[in-house]
Amino acid sequence: MSDQEIESLQGGCLCGQFRFTVDLDAKLKQEAQFCHCTMCRKMTNSQFWTCLSVPRQAFHVHDGCPPLKLYKSSDKAHRGFCTNCGSSLTWEPTDYPEYLDIGIGSLDHPEKVNVTSHLHVEGGMLPYDPTLPRFLRGPSGPQAP
């Protein structure tokens, strides 16, 4: 295992109080999913949560960070969030304690992760129209190419 190349992904919450590193095998594709379940939509106030499942042993909280507040959202999982700013950071399944999901929006460089699928679409997906105008910043600014 000493010849294994490791890719470290850094991330944290909005206020910066909670920071983490995820050390993953660089040879493997980092594949994330859009989760459309009701709980994820409510947690994010959005049409989906974009999550990456990682081995728990690969998730390292930086020294000096307070622990996440865990909320038991169902019999199957806890959700972790920053005690200061409330950023939702983790989904921790009780059936598979060796894994946890992190929100890729919390990563410093989410572009390093590939989104490969949609989950829990049985309740319907909110409409998404990729042909709508796209702006680099706000609607009064320049449009994106």
Automatic annotation (TrEMBL):
Family statement: Belongs to the Gfa family.
Gene3D superfamilies found in the cross-reference section: glutathione-dependent formaldehyde- activating enzyme (gfa)
Q: Provide the alphabetized UniProt keywords.
A: Lyase, Metal-binding, Zinc
Q: Which Pfam families match?
A: GFA
Q: What region holds the CENP-V/GFA domain?
A: 9-129
Q: Which domain of life is it from?
A: Eukaryota
Instruction: Give an example GO molecular function.
Output: carbon-sulfur lyase activity
Task: Give the species.
Answer: Hesseltinella vesiculosa
The question of whether Metal-binding is a record keyword is answered with: yes
- Identification of the protein by name: CENP-V/GFA domain-containing protein
